[in-house]
Design brief:
With 235 residues, the chain is an all-alpha fold. The protein contains 12 helices and no strands. The protein folds into 2 domains: 1-108, no CATH class; 132-235, no CATH class. The protein is elongated and about 65 Å long. The protein starts with 11 loop residues before the first helix and ends with a helix.
Length: 235
């Protein structure tokens, strides 16, 4: 489990101090996004360097045995330095972080939502600079399974709305979990608008999600999707 160094490092202020710059990744202005990408690139250099030192320390102390290795000062220092560097970078800051007391109380929640919003709004930049399909899947599942609070719920509705309006990307099917978790008039209104739009992807995907929302007992599998698609095309 990652332990971030510093007093209050795992509270709201600690996360904000480390990652407030990341909000620029979803800014409407290209200049703001470019500045955030430069900051991300710098953070990633630090992560790679710290990881290399940690790997070296691991190799040097591995002969000590597991318990002794984890007490060895050189190893402890290298591990702490890597954790600290990772806590300033996305998606690394979202890896192996404890979610206790419910996801709505997790200080990392705003940045988990930000990471998903970045992928939804600017998928090519996300793919180029921070592609992590496993992280995307895990975050979506954790958000769908928990109660993200009112603000988090509104953001999840936004994310479903964004995702149904584009061509399918890896792990997008996971958003059906979110749609089912935040089902309500607000989401259905958005999906109905997408269903009636001129965007062929929006019409297709929104129709499928609405169909599944009305049938909570049906699993969202590849087989179900293909069967629904074939049926919809035959009408």
């Amino acid at each position: 489990m990652t332990k971030v160094a510093g007093s209050g490092a795992d509270d709201d202020q600690g996360w904000a101090d480390r990652l407030a710059w990341a909000y620029g990744l979803v800014a409407a202005e290209p200049v703001e996004r470019s500045a955030a990408l430069v900051r991300l690139a710098s953070a990633r250099v630090e992560v790679r360097s710290a990881r290399a030192r940690f790997n070296e320390a691991w190799h040097l102390t591995s002969a000590l045995g597991h318990e002794a290795q984890y007490r060895e000062p050189v190893f402890v220092a290298a591990r702490g330095a890597y954790d600290e560097a990772a806590s300033h970078c996305l998606p690394e800051a979202l890896w192996n972080t404890p979610i206790s007391g419910g996801i709505s109380r997790w200080p990392g929640l705003p940045f988990a939502l930000l990471f998903l919003e970045w992928e939804a709004r600017y998928p090519q930049e996300w793919t180029q600079h921070a592609k992590a399909w496993g992280t995307k899947q895990r975050l979506i599942r954790e958000l769908a399974a928990g109660d993200p609070g009112e603000v988090g719920r509104a953001k999840l509705v936004d994310l479903v709305d964004l995702v149904v309006q584009r061509a399918y990307r890896c792990k997008d099917r996971e958003y059906v979990r979110v749609a089912r978790a935040v089902d309500g008039d607000d989401l259905r209104g958005r999906l109905d608008t997408a269903h009636r739009s001129d965007n062929p992807w929006a019409r297709l995907h929104a129709s499928y999600v609405l169909w599944l929302l009305d049938r909570p007992q049906i699993p969202n599998t590849g087989y179900v999707w293909r069967a629904w698609l074939a049926d919809s095309r035959s009408r």
